[in-house]
Design brief:
Length: 221
């Protein structure tokens, strides 16, 4: 005689779903963002000029994979749109995709400390030129560039500044010595000539200030 039949096996638990492509790419974006902040905290320049195009390619390939399987990802579409805007604006306005992230204030107090270029990828950059003192008379025909990729740029000039200044943005607002303009590709220019006002510190230089996406302000201190 046969023994009792073994109990029927219950339904097997469904296998855990593999992580979606969208979540993987978003996770990579978060990792790269954290790495960028860490690099800036350690004083290491992060290669945004290479990373952002590579991310855009990765997102494009992921979207192609979704399309082949008849699916879509709103998160990846949004991320791709943001990266495309950043790269297009950065290229059009000649602004940096390198230079670090965060908040930075530069206050040179001598001609030797004054750099020809100040750059920041993402964040707020202030370049205060009011501390150059009498050495500003030695800067005739000197060109100083200040650029921010995404964020805010402020350049402070002494009342005795003389020269040419250009302020521009890919998308955003520009304020130059009391005038303002905003929208797509705003640009303002100013020329200061004539004698330096009595009691003012002289500063003779040409200034180019630009931001890809955000605000740029050039004002007297």
């Amino acid at each position: 005689m046969n023994g009792p039949a073994p109990p029927a096996e219950g339904p097997r638990p469904a296998p855990e779903p593999a992580p979606g492509t969208g979540r993987v790419v978003v996770g990579l974006l978060l990792v790269l963002g954290g790495a960028a902040w860490l690099a800036d905290a350690l004083g290491v320049s992060f290669p945004w000029g290479l990373v952002l195009p590579a991310l855009l390619v990765a997102i494009g390939l992921a979207l192609v994979g979704f399309a082949v399987r008849g699916r879509s990802s709103g998160i990846l579409v949004a991320a791709g749109a943001v990266l495309t805007v950043l790269l297009a604006v950065g290229s059009g306005a000649r602004v940096p995709l390198s230079g670090g992230v965060g908040e930075r204030v530069e206050r040179p107090t001598s001609v030797a400390e004054l750099r020809e270029r100040y750059e920041l990828a993402v964040g707020s950059l202030t370049v205060d030129l009011t501390g150059l003192g009498e050495e500003g008379t030695a800067l005739r025909n000197r060109v100083v560039e200040a650029r921010v990729g995404v964020g805010e740029l402020v350049v402070v000039l002494p009342e005795g500044w003389r020269g040419n200044a250009t302020a521009q943005a890919g998308i955003g607002e520009v304020r130059l010595l009391g005038r303002s303009q905003e929208g797509l590709g705003p640009e303002l220019r100013a020329v200061e000539q004539g004698p330096v006002p009595p009691g003012s510190l002289p500063l003779f230089l040409h200034l180019e200030a630009s931001v890809g996406l955000g605000e740029v302000e050039v004002r007297h201190g």
